[in-house]
Design goal:
Length: 321
Amino acid sequence: MELGRLPFFDTLADAKTILLAGAGGGFDIYSGIPLYFALRAAGKTVHLANLSFSTIYATKGRRIGEALVEVTADTVSQLRYFPEFHLAQYLQSALGESIPIYCFDRVGARPITAAYRNLVAHLGGVDAVVLVDGGTDSLMRGDEVGLGTPQEDMVSICAVDALTEIATKLLVCIGFGADRYHGICHAQFLEAVAALVREGAFLGAWSLLPEMPEAKRLREAGEWVRLAMFNQPSIVTNSVLSAVEGRFGNYHETYRTEGSELFINPLMSLYWAFELGAVARRNLYLDAVRETESYTDLTLVIEAFRERIAGQTKEWQDLPM
């Protein structure tokens, strides 16, 4: 490992076909757009997927087995909230290609695991899976003061971890600080990173800079979807873009955050990369998640775990700076 090279990209050097998937649902796949363009530029075949918050079965998208729908720029839909569809439209406009976004339904871990296996088979196999989290709550193992919105992240981590036939499985986070909005203690995120460093599972951190073409693609896609879904802008995507452009402090890119106090800062533009298996092994309740069928099951399992450890969770820690 050399100072002048990024371990994340070195880990993917031999992978020819990569599945890049949004872990936490909604706009998480947008956090992977710079990675998508960087990996394509490196000669990789990259497929896109996302755990969707949209009612995907209310669309004309092609069904691919259980809990999985293929969405393209031509998919017929009346949905007002459909970030995956608007991303497909942006990519067709930007690249002149019809690029599908594979949407996982918002259900439990068992059907999502089956859907991931179906997708890998549908794609003819992949060499690597990269999950992308817009935010940092995917690293919370369960005993922190707050878990953010763990359901979708844990289902995705659980499903990809179960793909034992795929050797390279990574998790990438971006948007340090954005999850404060959902009660995440970022000192405890850094504690999790330190634990993964000790395991040799941290693959480095690096910044998006405004001059990078990949960062410009993120801005284009962000503007595209903001115009298409002007009543439902992404807090994380807009916070990351604000940080990339050098905004600082209580700066509001979108009306959705008005009335709250933000701390936009350069750390929000950092990608943090990890070996997914090590993240899964740290989690204290993932085994209970594995057999969940529905989103309700998933929520109840997490709530039951938190009730069992009531009084044993960590206290809030301010960053000493």
